[in-house]
Amino acid sequence: MSEDCIFCSIVAGDIPGRVVSETETTLAFLDVNPLAPGHTLVVPKDHHARLGDLPDDVAADLFAEVHALAPRVEDAVDADATTIGINDGEAAGQEVPHVHAHIVPRFDGDGGGP
Ligand code: 5GP
Ligand code: ZN
Description:
114 residues, alpha+beta, HIT family, subunit A, binds guanosine-5'-monophosphate, catalytic activity, Histidine triad (HIT) family protein
């Protein structure tokens, strides 16, 4: 855990998160500033800043959880499609330096994405 990391604090339960699902190594919770209804973030429970910092098994767990969850989120909000993305590094738009995958439900004609 990184002391001043907001996502580590959510994983630890020190600040509230609207948890969508949990595995041994990952946590999924709703984005506080959603781009669309159901916008979900999936994070490894351990603190790693960049995708390349993840051990292979944690990276596999993270993608497995995205794979399992994305269709469920899409169904839950009755969306038409899903955008999945990772902003890996500050210049790519990463604001929280704890690896996270975005699951963003998309709707016919919504005209934009992350
Ligand atoms: P990034 O730009 O790093 O890829 O995305 C960070 C995301 O984290 C943003 O979509 C932002 O709304 C979300 N976020 C930032 N702080 C919090 C928080 O305290 N709780 C939750 N649930 N999401 C947060
Ligand atoms: Zn962290």
